[in-house]
Design a protein that fits this description.
There is one protein chain. With 56 residues, the protein is α+β, with helices and mostly antiparallel strands. The chain has a single domain, classed as Alpha-Beta Plaits (2-Layer Sandwich), CATH 3.30.70. Helices cover 18% and strands 21% of the residues. It is built from two helices and four strands. The strands form two sheets. A two-stranded antiparallel ribbon has the order 1-4. It has a two-stranded antiparallel sheet with strand order 2-3. A hairpin with a 4-residue loop joins strand 2 and strand 3. Bound molecules: iron/sulfur cluster (SF4) (2 copies).
């Protein structure tokens, strides 16, 4: 299951920089993960200061 970013996201951009496959981009008010690209490595969840990315 791909990771998804919750509304807790404060749009800091750290996860996008950490993602090895560039699956994360800035969306409307928060960052978003492209489920087609995500390889479920968990780097975004480890990097996020507010724990917004989680596996569905
Ligand atoms: Fe990118 Fe890994 Fe997060 Fe998927 S789990 S969005 S591949 S950092
Ligand atoms: Fe949002 Fe967390 Fe990514 Fe920062 S690291 S943009 S708070 S999901």
């Amino acid at each position: 299951m791909a990771y998804k970013i919750s509304d807790e996201c404060i749009s800091c951009g750290a996860c996008a920089a950490a993602c090895p496959v560039s699956a994360i981009s800035e969306g409307d008010g928060k960052y978003e993960i492209n489920p087609e690209t995500c390889i479920e490595c968990g780097a975004c969840a480890e990097t996020c200061p507010v724990g917004a990315p989680a596996q569905e």
